[in-house]
Amino acid sequence: MQTHRAIIESIFALAPKNELWATPISGLTVHAADRSIRFNGYIQDPSLCVVLLGERQICTNGHCQVFGNQEMMFCPVNLPIVTQTLSVAENQPYLAISLRLDFDLIAKIITQLPPQKISENINQRTKWELENEIKDCLLRLLNLLNSPNHIHFLAPLILNELYFYLLQSEQGGYIRSLLSQDGNIAKIANATKILERKFADTLNMSALAEEVGMSVRGFTLILKA
């Protein structure tokens, strides 16, 4: 069995460099780079984003954070961001992955789990240490890219396992709270379409909240992460 390091090195060798690679695994994007790259005006889908090699800076709502090796960005709602790789060179490569969250699948898994009370004190921070169980699932998912014929059968099994562990983690409470708020995920998705359509315009929170039929307070709380 390949070690985690061997999987990371094999995927870096396989991936196109200095661009986003939409892999054959639905929702999984890989970014491998050997030079610094900056993306402006990027709408991040609801996703798990993990840096496996190197560092990157992510800015949203005027707040910037640096994500290093084995750190995860948990983004449960669509979010406009600016991101830049840091200190990247041929001898210091960068590798990160982004897995778009499948809320339909997550909702099905929740129905198979024991009921769990949703805490009123949900931690909505963006930056998390990557838990071992989630890391193992992500790397096994990545390793399927070395065996494309296995993707169709094995990827859904690994994703089920990954979402199970995600729901057991501290982030799971936030996901459950989002799914329990009728229509909020759909409303945020609609707001994202408006953002994409009017990205060059000046839109404030009040205008966006009004367009999707939410209160400013409720809309802002959902967007905060």
Automatic annotation (TrEMBL):
The lineage of its organism: Bacteria, Pseudomonadati, Pseudomonadota, Gammaproteobacteria, Pasteurellales. Signal peptide: none annotated. GO terms for biological process: regulation of DNA-templated transcription. It comes from Mannheimia haemolytica (Pasteurella haemolytica). This is AraC-type transcriptional regulator N-terminus. InterPro entries: Tscrpt_reg_HTH_AraC_N. It comes from the Bacteria. Residues 24-173 form the Transcription regulator HTH AraC N-terminal domain.
